[in-house]
Structures are given as structure tokens and as C-alpha cells.
């Protein structure tokens, strides 16, 4: 049973890969705070449900950021480019633009705090031993499968 990867995990992974060699993995920490649960209950078909969206502020802290080796504007561009490329519905959910605080600790290193509003889907899939009881059945959290037609037959009456 696979869990979904959160947007924060995606962004953090992207930054670690983009900054590989410039920062150590253990110098980057990330967490979620100040969240709002937006209840939905949408039936996704095949017994899957979108029960909510989790709108939150994600915080990414980078210690020992080598601001003289890596131009901090590169980091700002990385965050911006990732959010644009991700195609997440930021405007639709009123997500604020990221706030970034750079605290120069020494002539070579800085601590960078990135606050970015993100929104994750919370969807349920049926499972006999799932931890979530919903509609008198057991579920686990994942992305609900969606059937997409591979072929479509169209018959138009009156045309030969």
C-alpha cells in the first residue's frame, strides 16, 4: 500500500537534488505547520474518495548554506521554477507566494528559511485493515485510482 508523496517531499527532494554538492542532506530539514483541513467527501469512483485537502505552510530550513559559493538568487529561482513547473493550482486555492529569510551566520554560511503554502489531497482507497473508518468501511490514505478511457467509439446519427 503506497502512500502519496506530499508536495513538501517533492519540493525538498528537488532542492536536495538541485543543490547536490553544495549542501549536505542532514543540513536540510522540512516540516508542515499552520494547516487548514478543507473537507470535501468527493466520490472518485472505484470506491475511492477525496475526503479533504490539507492546506498548510511548509517550512524548509537549510543550515550552512554556502551563500558565497551558491548565489542565493539561484535558490530563489529554484523554488520559483519548481512551483511554476509543478502546475499545482496555487491561484485556485489562494496559496501565498513563498517567504524566504536568509540569516548570514558567517562570511561563508547562512541559514535559509523558506515558508511556502502548499496543498495536498487526502484521498482514501478501500482496504480490509485500513486505519480509517469511513462510510462503515475501512480505508487507507492514497491517491484514488481514476479510470481513463483509452478508446472512444463515437457514432453520429444521420451522417454516412
What does this protein look like?
This protein has 2 helices and 6 strands; from the N terminus they run αββαββββ. It has one domain (7-141). 17% of the residues lie in helices and 42% in strands. Residues 145-153 have low confidence and may be disordered. The chain is elongated, with a radius of gyration of 21 Å. By secondary structure, it is of the alpha+beta class. Strands 1, 2, 3, 4, 5 and 6 form a 6-stranded antiparallel β-sheet that branches. A hairpin with a 2-residue loop joins β1 (28-45) and β2 (48-65). The protein has helices spanning 7-18, 72-86, and strands spanning 28-45, 48-65, 99-104, 110-126, 132-134, 137-141.
Structure annotation, total helices: 2
Largest beta-sheet characterization:
6 strands, antiparallel
Radius of gyration: 21 Å
- The count of DSSP E runs of length 2 or more, i.e. the number of strands, is 6
Report the span from N to C terminus.
Answer: 50 Å
Share in β-strands: 35-45%
Helix content: 10-25%
The number of domains: 1
Q: Uncertain segments of ≥5 residues (pLDDT<50)?
A: 145-153
- Could you give the order of the helices and strands? HEEHEEEE
Provide mean pLDDT, rounded: 86
- Overall 3D form: elongated
The helix/strand class is alpha+beta
Structural features:
160 residues, 6-stranded antiparallel sheet, 2 helices, 17% helix, Phage_tail_completion_R
